[in-house]
Amino acid sequence: MRLGDPRLLEDLKQLGVEVRPGERLADWTSLGIGGTTDLLVVRERRYLSELVQRLRRAGVPFRLLGGGTNLLVADGELPWVVLHLARREPTVSISGPHVWLDAAEDLGRAVTTCARANLGGMEGLVGVPGSVGGALRMNAGAYGTEIGSLVRRVELLRMATGTLEQVEQSAVRFGYRVSSFAPDDIILGVELELVERPYAEIVERIRAANVKRRASQPLNQKSAGCIFKNPPGLSAGRLIDELGLKGFRVGDAMVSERHANFFVNVGQASCADMLRLIQLVRERVYRTYGIELEEEVILWVN
Ligand code: EPU
Questions:
Q1: End-to-end CA distance of the chain
Q2: How confident is the model over 264-285, as pLDDT tens digits?
Q3: Protein residue whose Cα sits closest to atom 2 of ligand 1
């Protein structure tokens, strides 16, 4: 979607927004897939509520892009603009075992910054790509740690009311790759409670998580992490692998040879290719095991 109206563009500038016209979201997602739209980089958080209201008044639909690492975006001209929070310094501030992380901070970097302050507890998350805000919304998890279990407080912009809120941990529910935030809440930051540990011990835990991840996941290929959630007590990757589907492809969208629940873009895959691959694999799993796999990846396809 292109914002043609010069008055709207001028207003956005006043609200501290950098408009990047006609960005390819393929350049903003780890899958390297996604069509074009105007990208609004939010540089001044204090005007965010006003910005949202301004877009609503102008009838401009929008979505919020975090790290783009768990996302499959439609091809072609997209029917909404995309907001993206610029990183805001300081992105990490530490007080005892409590750490405040800005939503736009990179999750892996947050883990290593905390490690340098002798704070552990999130070592398993070190290789999970994406932003802190995105990780929180999805309740990202790996190697026994889910970020939701560490949360004390979340700062967010409640779009329904346009208010800035500090939400206590007890008011948020986290489940397996889900949280109770409203779809249009904008997460701005989070306070976590970490564990004080010697630096060397944290580094060793980080190293162990990295070794496991490198051995089992296609880290040097374009992917969105796992495509499907694991069914209770089972592994989607193993189910797909047992069907002999590693290497199965639609165009340039392929089931990873290394981990069957990672679907990779090996060239110029389109969203349509990836969706077709998802559908075919889901059908095969259903026909063989009677199990309906549910996507873990977020779809921006309509
Ligand atoms: N397996 C296979 N073939 C495969 C893949 C896996 O046989 O192609 C087997 C493995 O040998 C293992 C079992 O399936 O016995 C489980 O595999 P793995 O340890 O790789 O874990 P997973 O359940 O596939 C989950 C998360 C990952 C997370 C890892 C490590 C989901 C959907 N996936 O994967 O998260 O990194 O555990 O904790 O919950 C993500 O969220 O995007 C993601 C990648």
A1: 13
A2: 999 999 999 999 999 999 999 9
A3: 238
